[in-house]
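Blinded run. Sample ID left blank on purpose so nobody reads anything into the name before looking at the predicted structure. Input follows.
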Amino acid sequence: MKRFVLYVAILLTSTAASAQIYQWKDENGKTIISDKPPVGHSRIQRKADAEAPAAATTAPQKSLADRELEFRKRQKDSQEKEEKAKKDENLAAQKQENCANLSRQLRSLESGERIALRNDQGERYFLEDAQREQEIAKARENYQSMCQ
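Blinded prediction complete.
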């Protein structure tokens, strides 16, 4: 049933699109535009306004090769824009992740918990208070420069 209604709608719109338009003035001087010709008067046909701009343009038609080149250029430009957008999106996500890591590091340093690190020989050592303050200052500086 839906298809039938769709077919009928398409049929009606296609016949309405191909209708002719007539314009005339009646006895009172009023301009009338209609798809039916005036009764008893000479007919003057006018093309639909949609067709007039196409006829009015006097620009020469571009060759097939020129249109193909323009199409490929537009394709290339849109592809470059998409790639740039993806790259920017990836950079923003990476920056957000780095900021989250810096924030966690700063919170753990400021929490007062003992922090164990490994030296070059692989031995574990704990940060002293002076070292902790230096690490906190570095972490704050990094966070402010990268995330704010």
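Unblinding after everyone has recorded impressions. The chain has a mean pLDDT of 82.
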